[in-house]
Amino acid sequence: MKQLPPRSGRLLELITRIAPIPLSITLLCGVVSFVKNEGLWHAYLIPFIVWSILSLTQMWVKQYPEKASYREQCFLFALVWILCAAISALPFLFVQQTVDFPDYSSAFFEAMSGYTSAGLTMVSDPSKLPASIQLYRSVMQWVGGLGFALFAMTAINSADSIDSMLEASGLSKSDRFNGQRLIKAYLYTYIALTIFILVGLVLYSIPVWEAINHSLTMASTGGFTITANSLSSYSGHTLTFVSICLFLSALPFPVMYLVSHGKWRIARKNTQMKVFTFCVLLALSLGMLATTSFSSKLFNIVSAATTAGFSVGQPTSIHPAITTILVVLMIVGGASASTAGGIKINRLVWLLKGVKAYLQNKQTQYFFNKELVVKSKAYKNIRIAGLYLLCSLSIRLLGTLAILLLEPMSKSSDVLFEAASAIT
Fold it and tell me: Does residue 356 contact residue 365 with C-beta atoms inside 8 Å?
């Protein structure tokens, strides 16, 4: 058998290692469809066959001793992500609501929104979807929330990837956090948080099937629901509980893992946790302009800050100032090493440190998590944060302009809000 070029070979190797994940999702939902007698088992057959072949191909794929660079890993990961969405879109085409999925592009959009935990959907009324499709969407978001990056990192065991995620968590070498322990922290915290949400929703009298699906999408800060109007039917106490859960989902998972083991000192010195809490409290105080209930205000603000995609009512119709606050929160997002999107809190902190140093116009020392950062590393972090912010704002601006050109009758503030919500 002719050997593939290194990049193509590493791509195929990564695909075969990732394939068991969507394979398991397809198998689970196919079984649910069969048990529920929905007549949709054949909808999962083609994806199941494709993922099975790719999983078995791993036995014949050559292992490449040289690891790819961090940049190449990101490129390969993006290609695999697109491939996963492309194949996983097929079951949506068999749903009888052809108005929701009239063609493949609509189905691909739904799958990509699921794996990226964006929260946007083509479904007008999720409560009318078959149970297996409801679970299919929820599990995709749960996997996407944790990030295929974690599974990819586990598969290729890259030291560069592990170090980058360790640094993003706000952990230092003194915390003795190696790569395997980092992966363990992610998985344990994510699973524990999902179970906590599930139990809480059941205790708040949410139906079990609804609680299962929503616990998956809430832990991932995804936004998919199986109800007709997002979470508008939830009581004030339930919304407050969900707000707390979303807030926890946006904190650094490795830090939460250490806190669960009694290491509270880590949380007290973690810059991201303190800044994120301050941003939410500040937005909540400004959100008092809205006339809605406190639980609704809290929920919409936390949902925006965690880029969750859930909503109560129509946020853009509340107050122009509230809409602006929500857009800013969605751009910033939650902490690194969490399920939240956005440019991340740690980059916001470095941007503010850079602005402060520029305004003071003098040499200064840079601290992060109460630890001194060497200037070369600090300058690099500031440049990267600025680049992220520039790219984020540029993409949102281009998206807003494109939608306004295609839909000239749309209200610009609503379009800006939707663009900010989509690109998180």
Answer: no
Q: What are phi and psi of 223, to 5 degrees?
A: 115, -15
Strand 366-368 with 371-373, pairing: antiparallel
- Whether the CB-CB separation of 25 and 136 falls below 8 Å is answered with yes
- Residue 166's pLDDT is 59
Residue partners of 293: CB distance under 8 A and separation at least 6: 236
pLDDT at 58: 66
Do residues 255 and 266 touch, judged by C-beta distance below 8 A? yes
- Tallying the residues shown for the chain, one arrives at 424
DSSP three-state, residue 122: coil
Long-range Cβ pairs for the range 210-215 (8 Å, 24+): 212/135, 212/138, 213/134, 213/135, 213/138, 214/138
The stretch 133-146 carries a mean pLDDT of: 91
Beta-sheet strands, E only, within 76-177: none
DSSP 8-state secondary structure symbol assigned to residue 371: E
Q: Tell me 306's DSSP state.
A: T
Q: Which residues contact 30 (CB under 8 A, 6 or more apart)?
A: 41, 44, 45, 48, 132
Ordered DSSP codes for 196-228: HHHHHHHHTT--HHHHHHHHHHHHTT----SST
Residue written as tokens 């070369």? 376
Cα–Cα dist 206/150, whole Å: 31
Q: Which stretch, 182-186, 215-219, 335-339, has highest mean pLDDT?
A: 215-219
R_g of the chain computed on alpha carbons? 22
**What b/e string do you get for 211-245 counting C-beta neighbours within 10 Å, with b at 16 or more?**
bbbbbbbbbbbbbbbbbeebbeebeeebbbbbbeb
| Ranges 70-79, 150-159, 248-257: which has the least confidence | 150-159
pTM comes to 0.86
pLDDT tens profile 270-287: 888 888 999 899 888 877
